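Example 276, ligand flavin-adenine dinucleotide.
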Amino acid sequence: MTVYLPADLDEALDVRARHPEATPIAGGTDLGVHWPQRMAAEPGDWLDLSGVAEIRTLAWKDDALVLGAGTTYWDVIRNPGIAEALPLLVRAARLVGAVQIQARGTWGGNVVNASPAADGVPVLMAYDAVLELRSRVGSSLVPLSEFYLGYKQMRLGPDELLTGIHIPLRTYDFEWFEKVGSRSAQAITKVGVAVTRRAAEWRVVANSVAPTVCRCPGVESLLAEERPVSGPSDLAPVLAADVSPIDDIRSTARYRAEVLARVLYWGLRDECPNVT
Ligand SMILES: Cc1cc2nc3c(=O)[nH]c(=O)nc-3n(C[C@H](O)[C@H](O)[C@H](O)COP(=O)(O)OP(=O)(O)OC[C@H]3O[C@@H](n4cnc5c(N)ncnc54)[C@H](O)[C@@H]3O)c2cc1C
């Protein structure tokens, strides 16, 4: 087993191009979970990104916050400006695992791990985040809402790394994220939903209810058109077309569908005149 330890981004991209079989590792909090089985089954090489300072920065631009892919949840929690400008980032960060995971897990790892249960991804998607992907030959920007192609499938080339996450700085009328798990910490999400509204423009993004974290276009239209909603049962049929929950060890499809409709209803009830 070889562990590559690049000192900077150029070197990391060089290793990525020459050794696409080496698995990038940032905080290791996802990869580490399967470490013993993985080492036995496929002892591969590693590209350790922890020494790449360029992706550990957090930069305020005129119109966006750029989170380096290697920034941790804790970097976000302790940044004084983020709670005011993009409060859902802090809310999601505080709901990830517990403080040990928040201190080590990265936003880039959460995105590329591509778990349907990822808690960082819904809030990033509700803020219309755009991913910066880089290879030795150039870079591209991909909206996060277009990044996932299916379960654990994504638009990331074998020679690319996720280097940054651009989050537009906008004024929202409403920002909200809720996570349902079996405990208040160290709980993988059974149902989660992030919502933002700017005038009539809504983003409703759910996790743990489809093969990928996903926007809910039916509910977004319902809210934009101000159609009446007088209980969770008015949201449920619309959500049924937006999401596709499954039974697994954490929950059942039925629980997920019902709880998503309820959580969303209660979250929206005081915010929208048409949700009564
Ligand atoms: C006890 C525990 C509790 C947890 N609780 C939660 C929770 O509540 N909510 C939640 O969402 N997650 C949770 N997680 C999962 C995990 O902590 C997060 O997903 C975290 O953000 C992963 O980041 P990482 O840097 O540790 O990723 P890593 O494990 O280092 O990598 C994850 C994946 O991303 C790839 N990768 C990482 N960085 C890059 C990059 N820059 N470019 C390309 N590929 C890259 C890796 O190759 C790998 O496929 C938990 C994990 C543990 C162990």
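Summary: Residues 253-268 form the longest helix (16 residues).
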